[in-house]
Design a protein that fits this description.
Order of helices and strands: EEEEEEEEEE
Largest sheet: 6 strands, antiparallel
Structural class: mainly beta
Radius of gyration: 15 Å
Shape: globular
Helix content: under 10%
Number of strands: 10
Strand content: over 45%
Distance between the termini: 30 Å
Length: 94
């Protein structure tokens, strides 16, 4: 199965970032906050949303930073994804 987002929605997959302290200790993912960097997996078509035209500016493969508590988490084929509105994407990481 695949996810096909509607309107201004974007499907992202969180990117695991391994973090190391100054002394070289690798922190376990359980001790870190929820990552905010994600990779765009699918993009909706945009269009008219709440009476305003939305043009999609992100594309599949972009690395983005999302709002900390934005979106809806879904699990599909043992993979976790988050569906967010384009407005909840704060920046594209280049």
């Amino acid at each position: 199965m695949t996810l096909k987002p509607l309107a201004d929605k974007v499907v992202v997959k969180l990117v695991e970032i391994e973090e190391t302290t100054n002394s070289g200790i690798i922190l376990a993912s359980a001790s870190q906050e929820k990552p905010q960097v994600a990779e765009v997996v699918a993009v909706g078509p945009g269009g008219i949303v709440d009476g305003n035209e939305v043009v999609m500016t992100v594309k599949v493969g972009d690395k983005v930073i999302t709002s900390k508590y934005a979106g809806t988490e879904v699990k599909l084929d043992k993979q976790e994804y988050t569906i967010v509105r384009q407005a909840d994407i704060l920046a594209i990481v280049e």
